[in-house]
Amino acid sequence: MDGGSSVKSQWFALSIGFAFTLSASLYLWTKKSTPDFPNGDATAEIIKLQASLKGALDKCAAERQGRIRAQKALREALSKSSCDKVESTSYPMAPIGVVHSCFSTRNGTPRQPLLVPLAKATLRFDPARVPQASLEGLEGYSHCWIIYVFHLNTDIEKLWKHPSQSKFKAKVRVPRLKGERIGVFATRSPHRPCPIGLTVAKVEAVDRHKVLLSGVDLVDGTPVLDIKPYLPYCDSIHGAIVPDWVKVDNVLAIASVNFSQGFSSSLADCWSLVEKKSLYSSPEEFQSLIRQVLSWDIRSVSQRSRPVKTKGGIGDDDNVENTVCPASKVESVQDEEACEQDSSNVVYHLLLEGLDVSYGVDSDANVVVEKVSLPSRLPSSGEISLAQCGKHSAKTLPRHDLQCRLGR
Predict the structure, then answer these.
(1) Membrane-crossing residues (predicted)?
(2) What is the pTM of this model?
(3) What is the DSSP letter of 379?
(4) CA distances to 15, 28, 34, 113, 175 from 22, in Å
């Protein structure tokens, strides 16, 4: 009995010691984890800090809402038309690059992209606006969209005026409709309220700040606003419907393109002067370009219906008799008939890579390319310029509907 009581007494003493030690440790831990406030009022200090945090969060939210309201007001102000100052509705956009194309002038520039597969161009980007890294990955696409400006339109200055004074024409002549007029938004005419163009081209190579393209329908010097990759799964629309007149291809088709006996020698004489800067590797490739370009009737509607020669046009020889029918005098059917002549006697001029290509078209739509020469001079004002009529309206032509109003 005495041994058992001794053991119980020892266990009791150990239990009391353990409980005391645990209580002391718990007291000390609580003391360390509780801040020592001057007045011992921890709850009041916590509430004060929470209120300060909430005030800061509310202030940030109010500032964000203020920025959103200011941005919305700015967008609304930009979208409102101003009768006194049209440029106030402009947006901060500027060209990011320039196209250097094989088409020296508007004449001969295809009316649609990819019609001339050999039509080459180099798109050079402005390094200050387009970092080289912006083009990384573009080489993985076969084609790209190009958004550009019709910078050679002769009526651009009118677009800065109030709509009531701009004299903008709602309808344009369409080559496929043989000059019949149709609404501008039903065509791809360059003469639009906003002279912005959209085209697609094949991506041949990407080199630093340059992109080599083919199949282009862009004249040399075209300013570019943006490029985007072509995506077949969403950009190609199966079952798309177009008007019947768009489906007619033979209206602008050429029966054949042939070259005169002296063409090769004339090209060889000029090629040495342009070879180093040319986009083409050989005279034979350049000749293939000429064939592809002239496989479509690049003449304007008025030229096809009333062919005329240029007066001292680009590349004309001095001993060739040139006749001209000033557009300013063509005001009636009688005047138009008086200017008509056999189309087989008409010499047209096409500038490619800075070289003047002389050719003729007979009544059966057969083209004969006569020669290649260096351009002599630009046509003077008031003359019908066969080397300037094309994708854009010619600078040298008066504002008559008989001239190059292309509806493409």
Answers:
(1) 12-29
(2) 0.66
(3) P
(4) 11, 10, 19, 88, 101
